[in-house]
Amino acid sequence: MKILLLYPRYPDTFWSFKHALKFISKKASFPPLGLLTLAAMLPENWQKKLVDLNIENLADKDILAADYVFISAMAVQQKSAHECIDRCHALGKKVVAGGPYFTAEAETLKDIDHLILGEVENSLADFVADLEAGKAAAVYPEKEKSDLADTPIPLWNLVKSKEYSSMSLQYSRGCPFNCEFCDIVVLNGRLPRSKSRGQVLAELDALYKSGWRSGVFFVDDNFIGNKNKLKSDILPAVIAWQKRKGYPFSFNTEVSINLADDAELLHLMVEAGFDTVFVGVETPNPESLAECSKHQNTNRDMLSSIEKIQQAGIQVQGGFILGFDSDPASIFRAQIIFIQQSGIVTAMVGLLNAPRGTRLWNRLKKEKRLLEDFRGDNTDCSLNFIPRMKTEVLINGYNRVLSVIYAPREYYQRVAVLISRYHPKPKGRVKPVSAQRLRAFMRSVWHLGIVDNSRKYYWKLLGSTLIKNPKAFPLAVTLSIYGYHFRKVVERYTGCKFGQDTA
After folding, report:
1. Half-sphere exposure for 336 (CA within 13 Å, toward CB)
2. 335: pLDDT confidence band, cut at 50, 70 and 90?
3. CB pairs under 8 A, 24+ apart, for 326-332?
4. Where is 417: in which H helix or E strand?
5. DSSP designation for 9
6. What angle do CA 239, 240, 242 make, to 5 degrees?
7. Better-predicted residue by pLDDT, 187 or 503
8. Amino acid 499: pLDDT
9. Lowest model confidence (mean pLDDT) among 191-205, 327-341, 344-358, 432-446
10. Residue 85: pLDDT above 90?
């Protein structure tokens, strides 16, 4: 059997980092981990080829050479996914689809030849057997959640790793919290399930043997969902592995804010090489947090919790949401003030949307406020429900928040706040500056220090960092480049044009 593994294109969003990746000559942030893991589950004697539309074009010959096309996608990739499916069908090829988007929207999809829903560890074998017997069904429902013990190492030999800025590794699935708007608990459940120490180390070994020597993203829903296992088993093993190998990887992941409450866990993550975490902050408004059941963020000083993580040597990226029923008219100003004070440089502010199957989706459906299915990008000024606040007021306020926090002055101010708190301890031997990093720096000097009209902030940041916190200089350069990307995306979404002091 000849299989084409097809990964649709992401649109240009905050998370695509499209404009920043050009500085380091990369085409995409992460490879399609789900498809690579699926590939490892398929029979060894099947021929497999991966085409990731985020780094290369799809040729008709690739489709025609395949017996079947396997496709996986997130909701934000749905437009590209359906274009791919139509193209495959036009060339007479059948499509096998799975992953978050196809699982969530299964009941609305009529143009897929075979759907494998949910986690495939316990259902893929049935599909393969039926396919080889010539009697494959149209839909294979999820049997049960996998305990991950049998999840194989992804087939990294299928990947053109030089085109990506980071590799990926999944340690666990599920999140113990139950935020109303989140589809994680719908897709992966509330009971965190995780791989063994041996599996994690085997995946690190596989990446190391492939020649990779850079960032690795733990793609977990909530990396600290099972804190005891991390502290007693996983992180000590990862620390030992990193020390043996000379710290070849830096790690980032997604966590809940209660990481700040556990000094031991925070220390172990830093020692293991974690330097960035994404936290769902959502809103500084307590009533909105209560509304969406974001209980882990309540009854605490969020700014203090964020600063504690930053001072430990971990950058905090944050998710923020506007459009809760409880949001007051002052929420836009409150979000701006909070973000600026927090030192969260990568502040992903989006409009509330309701993914299918979430508690929010069910509530809004009951209230007859749903408009359409979620398109997957909550930063493109679209809403799939009728908000309590006037839509025009909400959209205008949202655009105002983006135009302020990503204006050069405010953006570089946040970077300076982070740099003042961020004092990472070097791990392993001091590595020489790579040619890639040197090229990225020189490109930043040209584009941000000479051409860009915010150049005075760029030079001010780099100068002050060299004087006050020279170890953070590479981070200052990286975040300056990120800012360039964010401004490009905001300009496209809002139509605003950033000057030196736009805001």
Report:
1. 17
2. very high
3. 326/285, 326/287, 326/288, 326/290, 326/291, 327/283, 327/285, 327/288, 327/388, 327/389, 328/285, 329/389, 329/393, 331/283, 331/285, 331/288, 331/397, 332/397, 332/398, 332/400, 332/401
4. helix 408-421
5. P
6. 65
7. 187
8. 66
9. 432-446
10. yes
User: What is the signed CA dihedral for 357, 187, 18, 415, rounded to 10 degrees?
Assistant: 90
Q: What are phi and psi of 350, to 5 degrees?
A: -135, 165
Structure-derived torsion over alpha carbons of residues 370, 376, 380, 386, reported in degrees to the nearest 10: 10
**Number of Cβ within a 10 Å radius of residue 396:** 12
- The Cα diameter of the chain in Å comes to 69
Digit-coded pLDDT (tens) for 274-308:
999 999 999 999 999 999 999 999 999 999 999 99
d(CA 501, CA 503): 6
d(CA 32, CA 11) in angstroms, rounded, equals 15
Residue 396 has which token pair?
Answer: 């205008």
DSSP β-bridge partners for residue 98? 72, 116
Q: Tell me what the pLDDT averaged over the chain comes to.
A: 94
Residues 6 or more apart from 435 whose CB is under 8 A from it?
A: none
Within 219-315, where are the H helices? 227-229, 235-245, 263-272, 286-291, 302-311
- The model's confidence at residue 500, banded by pLDDT at 50, 70 and 90, is low
Q: Cα–Cα distances in Å, from 151 out to 35, 115, 341?
A: 13, 20, 42
- Tell me the angle at which helices 473-494 and 435-446 cross, rounded to the nearest 10 degrees: 50
Q: Token pair of 270, please?
A: 């830093």
Strands ordered across the beta sheet of 250-255:
166-169, 215-218, 250-255, 274-282, 315-322, 347-351
Task: Give the Cα separation of 315 and 250 in Å (integer).
Answer: 12
**DSSP letters of 475-489?**
HHHHHHHHHHHHHHH
Gap between the Cα atoms of 300 and 180, Å rounded: 20
Supply the DSSP symbol for 371.
Answer: -
pLDDT in tens, 125-177: 999 999 999 999 999 999 889 999 989 999 999 999 999 999 999 999 999 99
Distance between CA atoms of residues 202 and 365, nearest Å: 45
Q: Regarding beta strands 47-52 and 68-72, do their DSSP bridges make them parallel or antiparallel, or are they unpaired?
A: unpaired
Identify the CA nearest to 7 among candidates 92, 110, 100, 91. 100
pLDDT at 501 over 70: no
In the prediction, which pLDDT does 502 show? 55
The whole-number pLDDT of residue 430 equals 64
Q: Which two tokens stand for residue 263?
A: 């000094």
User: Cα–Cα–Cα angle for 490, 333, 280, nearest 5°?
Assistant: 65
